[in-house]
Write a structure and sequence with these properties.
4 helices, alpha+beta
Amino acid sequence: MEPSILVITLAVGDLERSLRFYRDGLGFASEGIVATEFAGDEENAAGAIALFHLRGGLMLSLYPRAELAKDAKVSLERSNSGSFSLGHAVASREEVDAVLSAAQAAGATLTGPAHDRPWGIYSGYFKDPDGHLWEVLWNPELASSASS
């Protein structure tokens, strides 16, 4: 298997609320909820999703929790926000603070204030309305090599 991740799908409890959080609150570009014409049934998942095209060809997909479970043929489980985090790298310390503030204003819960980590980055975490954990980080080593 060639290592490649092109789509990250987050299971959400309320698709419209999550769309508003990411599109209106965080500014992620989206055409809104698509594929609503694909109705599901007891065995087959419905198609309605919200998509966000990110840098580097990566796509973030929001999919109703019950439909994702049905599509993957797994039991419907509540997410465990400590299982993984998504990282959002920014260009400065100030931008870390600004993104965390914007996320909080949009309905996220901050897990604590951003701070310097012993390994050289400045970062903080927030949980989206469904509990998905995001780390907003600035790495001065990456920033200095990118500007060279």
